[in-house]
Design goal:
Order of helices and strands: HHHHHHHHEHE
Shape: globular
Strand content: under 5%
Structural class: mainly alpha
Radius of gyration: 17 Å
Number of domains: 1
Strand order of the largest sheet: 1-2
Largest sheet: 2 strands, parallel
Helix content: 55-70%
Number of strands: 2
């Protein structure tokens, strides 16, 4: 299983994928802000995914950014954020690709292990996600790219959540002066930012 630091280092390559789609950075952060503020008071109603697809997406989030000493992507409800973000910010073609990705993941799980993805053992789930991430059969390079886009959205949701920005990343409401080119091993954590809460 991939550790969180390697995952974050790989995010730089993922961030350059085709999911620079239609939202600007400001629009993306605004969508995240609206979602997480509304989650404090409202029950979320899925708009793009079925309950089964959300359950599959929840399990994917569980493995992409697992809980450690901080809650992971599943605990911060990144699967619901992905539904919100795709519906509000992304064109229909990409929405359909993401739904197809979840369908193909379920098909691959059933073909390889005889069970739906949500019922697989942890090692089977990880093996299947690694196959998807590398484009190994039964998956193809198109699905591999769609999975990278999904990982980007999960990371966007996680690191713009209150938990991701304040507990996983270091956070200061008013940071000190600028220090350029500081090695990560000297700072301990990367810095997150949140809109006023």
């Amino acid at each position: 299983m991939i550790n969180r630091r390697k995952f974050i280092q790989g995010l730089a390559t993922v961030g350059g994928t085709s999911l620079a789609l239609t939202c600007t950075e400001q629009q993306a952060l605004a969508a995240a802000d609206i979602f997480f503020k509304s989650r404090r008071t409202d029950a979320y109603r899925a708009r793009l995914f079925s309950i089964e697809q959300l359950t599959t997406l929840h399990k994917i989030c569980f493995y992409l950014i697992p809980a450690t000493d901080t809650p992971g992507a599943a605990e911060t409800e990144c699967h619901l954020f992905v539904d919100h973000y795709l519906t509000d910010c992304i064109e229909e073609q990409t929405q359909l690709k993401t739904k197809r990705l979840l369908h193909e993941l379920e098909e691959g799980a059933t073909a390889r292990y005889g069970h739906p993805f949500i019922h697989l053992a942890p090692e089977q789930s990880v093996a299947l996600l690694e196959s998807l991430d590398t484009g190994i059969a039964p998956f193809n390079p198109d699905l591999q790219q769609d999975f990278r886009n999904l990982k980007f959205l999960v990371c966007l949701g996680y690191y713009t959540s209150f938990t991701g920005a304040t507990r996983e990343l270091a956070y200061q409401a008013i940071p000190g002066g600028f220090k350029g080119s500081v090695p990560l091993d000297q700072t301990g954590k990367a810095w997150g930012s949140l809109p006023r809460i």
